[in-house]
Amino acid sequence: MSAPSPRRWAALALIALAQFIVIMDTSIIGVALPRIQEDLGFSQENLSWVFNAYVVAFGGLLLLGGRLSDLFGARRVFGAGWVILLAGSLVAGIAPEVWVELAGRVIQGAGAALIAPSALTLLMMLFGHDPKELTKAMALYGAAAPAGGTAGVFLGGVITEYLSWPWIFYINIPIAIVVLLANKPLMPAVQSQRGSIDVVGALTVTAGLASAVYAIVRAPEIGWGSAQTWLVLAGAVALLGGFVAIQARRREPLMRLSIFRAPNLSAANLTQLLLGGAWIPMWFFLNLYLQQVLGYSAFPSGAALVPMTVLIMVGMIVLAPRAIGRFGPKATTVTGLALLAAGMGWLSLISPNGSFAADVLPASLVAALGMSLAFIPSLGTAISSARPEEGGLASGIVNTSYQVGSALGLAAMTAVAAANGAGQLGNLPALTNGFSSAFIGAAGIAAIGALLAGLTLRSHRTEPAAAEPATTHSGH
Known about the structure:
Layout: H1 8-27, H2 33-40, H3 49-72, H4 74-94, H5 98-127, H6 131-162, H7 167-170, H8 172-186, H9 199-222, H10 227-249, H11 265-293, H12 298-303, H13 306-327, H14 329-347, H15 356-383, H16 391-419, H17 428-456
Helix pairs in contact: 1-5, 1-6, 1-8, 3-4, 3-5, 3-9, 3-16, 4-5, 4-8, 5-6, 5-16, 6-13, 6-15, 9-10, 9-16, 11-14, 11-15, 11-16, 11-17, 13-14, 13-15, 14-15, 14-17, 16-17
C-alpha cells in the first residue's frame, strides 16, 4: 500500500464540503418553497416536485455514478459532477416557469449523483490505510450529510429573506469553481479501468423510481382508486423488476446483485433507506408548519432549525463514535432510530396555536439526536462490506438507498398530509392536522427501521468503518 497522502486532511475537507452541498441542495429549497410556488405557479400538491425532481435524478443515477467512478477514476468523475451541478444550478436559478425549474433540479441531481459516490470512494482511498483515521474521517464525512440537510434550511432562509430565491441555486456556482480548482492538487489520481457502462440499466432504474414517486404524489389529487394511479405504480414495479432482470443477465452489470450476499450490506442499506424516508419528510413539513401555521418568515424559519444542526454535528463527531465503540454499531443504530421515531411522534402533537419553544424545539432535538446516532453506524456498516474494486458501487448503493428512501418517504408523507388537510392554505387547523399526520407517518417509518435493524443487523462490537480495514475501498 502506498504512503498516505500528506494532503489527505485538506482533501477530506473538500470531500466533506461535497457531501454537505449535495445534501444541502435537497433542503435549501425548503424555506423558499412558498416564494417559488408564488412566482412560478406550482400547486400545493405538486410543490414537492421541486424537491423530488432533484432527489429522483440523484437517487436514480447514483449507481451509474458509482460505476463511472470505478471505470474512469473517482477524481475525474468527482470533477465532472461539479461541472454538471454548476450548470443545473444556473438553469434552476434563471427558471421563468415550472418546467425549466424542474429541468434545472434534474440536472443538479445528475451532477450530485456523480459527486456523492466518487467522494466516498476518494475518502476510502485516502484513509483506508489506518482504521483509526478512517473512523475519524467517516465521522466528519457523515456529519456533513444531515448537517447539510438542516443547515440548508437555515441558509435558504437567509438567502430568501435578504436576497431572492434564485440565489439558493446560484450559491453553488462559486463553490463549484473552488472545488474544481482544488480537485487535481488534492485528490489522488486513479487509472481508468476496462469495462462497459450499463446505460439501459441506469435509465430503467431512474424511470422506475420516478414513476413510483409520481404515482404516490399524484394519488391524493386523482384518487388512490383511480386506474391511472395503479397503472403508473404497476409500470414502476415493472421497470424496477426489469432493472433487476437486466442486472442478472448482464456480464458487467451496473449493480452486481451478488454483492448483497455480503454480511450486513443489505441490512445496513435497508436501514439507510428507512432513515432517509423518515428524516426528509420531517424537515420538509416542519418547515411548512413554521411558515404556514406559526407565521414565520423565511429567515426566522431557517434560524429555528439551527439547534438541530448544532446537535447533529456534535452527535456525529463526538457522540456516535463513542457509542459505537462502547455498544457496537447495531445497538447504536437501533437506539438512534428509536429516538428519531420518538422525536417525530412528539412533533405530531403540534397545534394551530403552538409555539417554537413548546411545539418544535424539544421534539426536534430528540429527533436530531436520533438521526446523529443512527446515520454513522449504518453508513459505516454498509460501505465496509464490499470488495475493494467495487468501492464506487458500494458508495453508490448506500447513497441510493438513502435518496430513494428520501424520495419515496416524502412522496408518501405528502400524500398522507394532503389527505388530512395540508392542501387547505389559510386553514390553520386543517394544515396542522395534515402536517401532524405526516409526522406520525414518518415516526412509523423510523420505528419500522429500528425494528428491522434490530432483527437483521449482525452484532459487531467494533467501529463499522474500521471493521476489516483491508477490505474497505482503498484498493483503487
